[in-house]
Amino acid sequence: VSQSRYSLGVFLMKSSTLGLGPWGVAAFELNALLNPILGFFTFGTASTIHTYIMIFIILVINKNIKSAFVFVSVFLINGMVDFYDFIVFPQWLIANLGSAILSHAIGFVIYCLGSAFLILSTYPGMVIEEFTFALMKVLKIKTYPIMRTMVAYFGFVLAFMYGLLSGTYASSITVLSFFLGVAFGPVIQAIVKGIRRSKFGSKLKPIKV
What we know:
The protein is mainly alpha-helical. The chain is 74% helix and 0% strand. The protein has helices at 2-16, 22-38, 43-62, 70-88, 97-120, 127-139, 144-166, 175-197.
């Protein structure tokens, strides 16, 4: 359920055209680079390439077979983004700025909720969150929002590289994209802490976020 929320959130933010998060624009720019060459490349495929690289790093750092569960998330999450895009909402069209803002805002909230519930599950779920926790361990960084922002902004570095190679010059990056790079970590952390303070959260296993 959390994975479907996350995927729907990505789809809604992408559809608004107002700006994706850092790894969203990285996938968008990689798609722009390779689709003209291969002809069958999609946004979801581009996301999968990035996540496979993250998974490899996670497995090397954690040395835990349990971390391999993130492979399931790759197929579910990235596949569902394309599923929403091409199957469920193939004619999805944002008519005006108001609709775009609403779509992006709802997508942002759904994305953060999905991420928070995956973290609370204590099972390896969303790759970028597992990647963040793995790097926190290696770099001895104890603050989740700081590490999450660092990971997010590395996505911009890749987007700029792809943009230079494709000739788009990373035009998909907007001011809102930079805001999202900073906002995701604190908002997800706030949701996790809010749920933990609730009656439902008291039954969950303790985690550090």
